[in-house]
Amino acid sequence: MGNILSAPVRIVVMEGDGIGPEITAATLEVLRAAERVFALALSFAPVTVGFAALRAHGSTLPDAAAEAAKSADGVILGPVSHNDYPPAAQGGLNPSGELRRRLDLFANIRPARSRGGFPPRCGSPVDLVIARENTEGFYADRSMFLGSGEFMPTPDLALSVRKITRAGSTRIAEAAFALARRRRNKVTAVHKANVLRVSDGLFLECTRAVAARFPAVEYEERIMDAMAALLVRDASAFDVVVTTNMFGDILSDLASEISGSLGLAASLNAGAAHAMAQAQHGSAPDIAGQDRANPASLIGSAAMLLAWLGERRDDERRDDERFTRAAAAIEDALDRAIATPQWRTPDLGGPLGTKALGARVATLVEEGART
């Protein structure tokens, strides 16, 4: 197992809004089971964001919350209802976008994988990862130094600014090719350079330059609209997909739903120094408090965070495999739960509630360690 390090690993936990507190509680139950089995020495620090923080502190992301995230070893962020927040001037910041920007979480890694016992919606097996650039593109809260990237020069004219940089394009491409080297050695760059000739042209220029440094990795390019059609036709043809912010957001939801359900879609926001686990879906306020939400997405995202921590420890030559083993154990437990109809939540046609699925996955993590 390597050298066991006694220093605690501090995880900041932000429950968010809507179903956030419920699925976060289920996720923490699974992480505590993994902590017991693999001696991870995790320390969980709750930090309030969202509507609860707005009521208490006048901001959905108080400065103290952002600083806590910056000083932590990792962050778990539950879904937030940012579309319902007041304007930013009145404290309604989007914690997700703000933390991605402030922590420089440039890579949004979103796997889509079909699971045993739960067939993919389009027939072919799915096992791909979308590497989405996370800090620029068309997103209005990330494309300007000051102010919004959307503005209205006149009451009848609305404009949006798209920011694509050489540095941003290069580093997401590097992340994608590094990921492909650990998978099946194939990268597909998705773009719309046929109409966005300058901005997507720069993105492709940077991606091609990175591809030249990875001759063992097969490289191809697809136009965005064609890529959407190809995913529906046969998603098994793809391994790692690298693309800009908005295209990655759209394609990852599509790929996750094709693979089985958006409710199973994990997501990790990662940078050079920080990482944040975040469910791929929204806050679903219509079912909040009803013990009906599927926590699998956030549980899988937390497993990705553990794997990221494990990779950093490998890079630092600490000879510590506990985190990567714990991440694999959680993924295996999720697979086993989802493969069994009576262990699924209502969105997947099963009878279990949020708490019960969290407890089941936690039990499977512990049982798996004994076999």
Describe the protein's architecture and organization:
- The chain has a 10-stranded mixed sheet with strand order 2-1-3-12-11-4-5-10-8-9, with helices on both faces.
- It is globular and about 55 Å long.
- It contains 11 helices and 12 strands.
- By secondary structure, the chain is an alpha/beta fold.
- Helices cover 41% and strands 16% of the residues.
Estimate the strand proportion: 15-25%
- State the helix count: 11
- Major β-sheet profile: 10 strands, mixed
What letter string, H or E per element, gives the SSE order?
Answer: EHEHHEHEEEEHEHEHEHEEHHH
| Ends apart, CA distance between termini | 17 Å
**Quaternary class:** single chain
**Which percent range fits the helix content?**
40-55%
Structural class: alpha/beta
Overall, the morphology is globular
- Order of strands, main sheet, comes to 2-1-3-12-11-4-5-10-8-9
Uncertain residue ranges? 1-5
Please count the beta strands (DSSP E, at least 2 residues each).
12
| Averaged pLDDT | 94
Cα gyration radius (Å): 20 Å
Outline of the structure:
The protein is α/β, with parallel strands linked by helices.
Primary descriptors:
371 residues, alpha/beta, two-stranded antiparallel sheet, 11 helices
